[in-house]
Amino acid sequence: MDFLYTYETLKLEFPLSEPENAKFVILGVPFDGTTSFKPGARFGPTLIRHATLNLESYILDYDVDIAELPIADIGDIAVVAGDPRRTADRVRETVEELKRANPGAIPILLGGEHSQTLGAVEALKPASYVVFDAHLDLRDSYEENPYNHACVARRIAELGVGEAIFGIRSGTREEVTYAEEHGIPWVHARDYDFDAFVELVKPLPEPVYLSIDIDAFDLSLVPSTGTPEAGGLGFWEVVEAMEWLVENKRLVGFDIMEVGGGELGDITALTAAKLLFYFLGAGAGIL
Ligand SMILES: N=C(N)NCCCCNCCCN
Ligand SMILES: [Mn+2]
Ligand SMILES: [Mn+2]
Predict the structure, then answer these.
(1) Which residue CA neighbors atom 6 of ligand 1 most closely?
(2) CA of residue 136 to ligand 1 center, whole Å
(3) Which cofactors are reported in the record for this sequence (predicted)?
(4) What's the CATH number of domain 6-283, 3.30.70.270, 3.40.50.300, 3.40.50.1970, 3.40.800.10?
């Protein structure tokens, strides 16, 4: 099928399915219009796809070959440069279009700025939003823009979606107060462990949308993300949480956002690509 706003970009190296028949449908959002520190998130989707060339499609620990799974890649959204809201509208419309054609599909966004998660959440209407992030993203507005990536968790909370936030080590007093007043639980990266994750996520209503802002990882794993922060999570900590969610909750959407870089082979994209393969492998046979 043709999508109104997508164009083709680099594909994954193994055979892919048509979006109508796929279980997992990849969609790139090469938007970096509101990043305040390091530019390059517009290259995130392309860098992640390229980084997959370095990886085996066979996942050792799952005995799953993701090359055998029904995966589609519908390319990248044509962004409205500098306008996160209008770009997120295109994400929403594209995800809606996909769900009409294939209601069972699980969209996987590759970003690109976290601001674009809002479009996917608007389309998929999950009951809960589980997010790994260095930042609370609960600002009402940032740099005079309510659709700045620093506001995305706030916009999603305003939709009435329950939230749980993990890996935090950056926020303002106002954001902490907002979280308290609205009963949004969050776990500091220093305090994070698997038990804390399960305790907070278990009671959340389904379906669940899982968002990984790549800056949740320690910056040694993601040096080219737009707003890197020291003191983050390790790779297996996030994989283990993801596995628990896939096995225990009904997931309607997944994303890996804030990947950036200026050069093929960037460490940040290698981290993101490996995480993507683990999500696909964990979801095989379950999702
Ligand atoms: N969600 C995000 N990525 N937020 C980033 C906010 C940037 C905060 N800069 C603070 C600079 C203070 N001088
Ligand atoms: Mn972040
Ligand atoms: Mn974020």
Answers:
(1) 150
(2) 10
(3) Mn(2+)
(4) 3.40.800.10
